[in-house]
Amino acid sequence: MSIRYEPAGDHIVLITIDRPEAHNSLDLDHFKWLREAWERFEAEADAWVAVVTGVGPAFCSGADLKRYVPEITKLGKQLAEQGLTEIGGYRLDDGTRAVLRDWTLAKPIVAAVNGSCTAGGMEMLGGTDVRVACPEARFAVMEPKRGLFAGGGTTVRLPRQIPWAAAMELLLCADLVDASRARELGLLNAVVPREELLDAAMGYARRIVANAPLAIQATKRSALEGLYADDAAIKAVRAAVKALAQALELVTPDDPVAARSALAEVREQLAGLAGQLRPPFANESALGRQVFATEDAKEGPRAFAERREPKWTARLWH
Question: Which amino acids are annotated catalytic?
Fold first, then answer.
């Protein structure tokens, strides 16, 4: 498998895109395997931080258009004909999930950018949290130069993550920029020599895992949900509108019992919507209460008072 998932010790996993012969581009198989790697990382309780990198002169260059376009077209046709959403583990959203689009993955991800990071590589970079690159790395949202559109999240994420003018330079000029310029624009945390790249990324990962894992995950979740609060609100409203429309279809003047039942369902939907539409500060408070209900919230102050390193358990207090 050309997407490697390897435990790296200290609750860190290393995800490696190993397809240098194709500049670490992704066909149908590789998008599926990368999506599965992220899902495995999210599901494994002992995995607290992921480091993602590539092999060779490229970090990730996105879709392998020669292979992926016909493959995804064929898959889409098969799914439609059979009325399915998945065949053999392959799904139409493998590509967007692989680059972490529209996914509140609360565990931290460190990117070790070993080379060119373009197209889907830039899309995935936007889903990472800490980014280290070597001087040889190059970055670009190149789709407009080909008459295409970056639909993997970059046009939404980039202007929210770095200053507007910096984001628009990358999005509208569509030029390759070197690692030094990428750092100036706020896209990177550090630029280090190639031979030090993975060590530097692992250093960031170890600094993160030194902290309580549930507190870290709640912190990232609060940051993401605050950054994309409008997305969550739109989804909640759309779901509620659909449910309300279905309920109101049951209201008939000649059947008071059915009408009362339907209106009760409408009230329930509205109450549920009000509960979902929490402002970011209210969401932060709710996440804070969850963190303070963990064993680690007691262990941290205790370890500080006893002048020792804390022993995190990532468990709720019982």
Answer: 123, 143
Which parts of the chain fold into alpha helices (H)? 28-43, 65-82, 94-98, 120-125, 154-161, 164-168, 179-184, 197-209, 213-227, 229-248, 256-276, 280-292, 295-305
List the domain boundaries for the chain.
Answer: 3-209, 213-305
Burial of 18 (0-12, 13-18, 19+ CB in 10 A): middle
Taking the C-alpha atoms of residue 132 and residue 34, their distance in angstroms, rounded to an integer, is: 20
Three-state DSSP class for residue 13: strand
| Token pair in block for residue 219 | 């912190």
Q: Would you say the C-alpha torsion 150, 155, 156, 162 has a positive or negative sign?
A: positive
User: Could you give the 3-state DSSP secondary structure of residue 149?
Assistant: coil
Q: What is the CA radius of gyration of the chain?
A: 23
- CA-to-CA distance for 255 and 238, rounded, in angstroms? 28
pTM (2 d.p.):
0.85
Residues 6+ positions from 170 with CB-CB distance below 8 Å: 139, 140, 141, 158, 177, 185, 187
Q: What are phi and psi for residue 13, nearest 5 degrees?
A: -120, 150
- Taking a C-beta distance cutoff of 8 angstroms, is the pair 150, 143 a contact? yes
In the 8-state DSSP scheme, what is residue 139? E
Domain at 3-209, CATH class: alpha beta
The DSSP 8-state label assigned to residue 9 in this structure reads S
106-161 pLDDT, tens digit per residue, is: 999 999 999 999 999 999 999 999 999 999 999 999 889 888 888 888 999 999 99
Q: How confident is the model over 17-56, as pLDDT tens digits?
A: 999 999 999 999 999 999 999 999 999 999 999 999 999 9
Tokens, residue 318:
């019982």
What gap in Å lies between CA 214 and CA 114, rounded to an integer?
30
For 282-303, letters b (16+ CB in 10 Å) and e give ebbeebeeebeebbbbebbeee
